[in-house]
Amino acid sequence: MNIDRTTIVVRERKLPELYDLALLVIRRHFWALGLLLLIGCGPFVLLNWWLLRGHGEDAWWTWYPCLLLIAVEGPFATAPIAAYLGTALFDEHPRLGAALRMALVRWRALLLFGLYRGLLALIPLLLVLYPPHTAEVCVLERQPLGATWRRLASLRTVWSNEWTLHLLLGGPLMALGVIFLIEAVQVITSLLLHADLMNEESSLTPYIPGASFAPHLAIWLVMGYLAVVRFLSYIDLRTRREGWEIDLALRRAAQRLEPSA
Q: Each residue of 190-231: pLDDT tens digit?
């Protein structure tokens, strides 16, 4: 790990900058992040579709169990992305295998936090109590469970002042992203099958998790993007709360002052 130079400039950023920077990070690591998304989220896409399939166009209620499942699965599914980006911050050539191992080692803690988030999601408004940077703290800081919880609580205290802005920006963005991707899946499917699926009798069926595969795929694609935003938010939070930018600068200076062997 080379702390003398980071691949992302560590400095304080405003919220819109984080969402914009996430697009640049995804473009830079497109294939690696895509593969990690496939490995981490792909099984859950298929599992959720299998559990909820078989319902008709009036099964809007399937959105509720769908979101409950995602709440439980999210920390574990996106942990490899956090591990990879944590390494990529200091290494221009991070390894996928190392990122997967870093996430897998912490599977117990991630599972417990996922179950906790699932319980909160039973009443969606309670999700504001969930610490948002669980995957990053679990995978990158690698502390015991009790210390991890205390660390998350301290970060959440600072972040709670900004969660409204994240909700106002991230909520509509996620909804629009899901709608756009569902439409994209429909168009691609129509082209591949040479069928006019866009003009079927029920135009709302593709938006129902119990009747269509498209919502499951769309949600997890958006979740992958938000996982990158969340990682950048974690770095930004540490920079503002702990002066991480200054800490990195001091470490670089110390390394340069060390006598060469």
A: 666 655 555 554 567 788 898 888 899 999 999 999 999 999
CB of 52 closer than 8 Å to CB of 210: yes
CA distances from residue 214 to 36, 81, 94, 185 in whole angstroms, order as listed: 20, 22, 32, 6
Q: Confidence band (pLDDT; 50, 70, 90) for 113?
A: very high
Q: How far apart are CA 18 and CA 232, in angstroms?
A: 6
Residue 103, C-beta contacts closer than 8 angstroms, at least 6 positions apart: 40, 76, 79, 80, 82, 83, 110, 139
Please, what's the b/e burial string for 154-169 (b: 16 or more CB within 10 A of its CB; e: otherwise)? Answer: ebbeebeeeeeebeee
Residue in the structure block whose two tokens are 């992958």: 224
Find, among 116, 102, 192, the residue nearest to 153 by Cα.
116
* Phi, psi angles (nearest 5°) of residue 95: -105, 135
CB 136 within 8 A of CB 226: no
pLDDT over 70 (residue 16)? yes
pLDDT digits (tens, 9 = 90+) for 33-67: 999 999 999 999 999 999 998 877 778 899 999 99
Q: Tell me, what's the pLDDT at 164?
A: 66
Tokens 């319980």 -> residue: 119
Q: Are 58 and 214 in contact (CB under 8 A)?
A: no
Q: What angle do CA 213, 108, 242 make, to 5 degrees?
A: 100
Q: Are 40 and 107 in contact (CB under 8 A)?
A: no
